[in-house]
Amino acid sequence: MAEAKIPKATAKRLPIYYRYLNILFNAGKQRVSSTELSEAVQVDSATIRRDFSYFGALGKRGYGYDVESLLNFFKKTLNQDRLTNVALIGVGNLGHALLNYNFRQTNSVRISAAFDINEEIANTIQSGVPVYPMAEMKEQLQIQQIDVAILTVPIDDAQKVADELVAAGVKGIMNFTPIRISVPATVRVQNVDLANELQTLIYFLDHYGSEAANQSTTD
Ligand code: NAD
């Protein structure tokens, strides 16, 4: 991750910039103007300039941005030059979908181990990922040096499993359950709540109409 502290909204846009720069690079493009970048990623150019300013002057006036150096820069910032293994806890409806998806768009993150309490699914391989019983979670997380976990267990089990993850040394939890889990200050939680996102979108449309159409609801 970047050394400098950057706003959360900026951090969320970095992977979007990175993905588009990758496409440009693979298509052999050497430079990109801020207008072109803005149209492609649907973020206004003032926001892009402000985002990039947190990392120092990366563009040149009248030239735009050098695709390769910008790409290399984001690759380092986003740790795209190394693979991070993550775990998934709860291989039900949502868990299966995430295992099947397994972040194919990026080469830098993959779910390498899944865990479930259900004996019928533990000790099987789902979408190419081994599913272990919960009793093996701590050991596997340590062997595989995993410190990020995706939580897709039922609401009632969320806090208990989060506690187990913390005890196993996990440093980051992506929480798909609708409850806010409690963790020590040393552990980071990212909540993903589809219902919330949808309600925010509807709120923006109701209050601002198409004015807000091109703005991310997470800004
Ligand atoms: P599900 O019932 O299909 O799957 C849950 C899985 O967790 C099952 O395989 C079950 O065996 C396992 N499990 C139960 N207790 C466990 C424990 N203590 N330890 C390990 N594994 C355990 O549920 P689902 O539809 O996949 O939803 C999972 C969670 O994701 C729920 O909390 C749900 O509310 C939430 N959800 C979130 C979103 C979202 O947008 N964030 C969308 C859908 C579902």
UniProtKB/TrEMBL annotation:
Domain CoA-binding as annotated: residue spans: 79-180
Alphabetized Gene3D superfamilies for the sequence: NAD(P)-binding Rossmann-like Domain (3.40.50.720), Winged helix-like DNA-binding domain superfamily/Winged helix DNA-binding domain (1.10.10.10)
Membrane-spanning ranges: none
Keywords for this protein: Cytoplasm, DNA-binding, NAD, Repressor, Transcription, Transcription regulation
Stored Pfam families: CoA_binding (PF02629), Put_DNA-bind_N (PF06971)
DNA bind region: 16-55
Intracellular or extracellular location(s): Cytoplasm
Family stated for the protein in its record: Belongs to the transcriptional regulatory Rex family.
Oligomeric form and interacting partners: Homodimer.
Record protein name field: Redox-sensing transcriptional repressor Rex
Taxonomic lineage of the native organism: Bacteria, Bacillati, Bacillota, Bacilli, Lactobacillales
Gene name of this polypeptide: rex
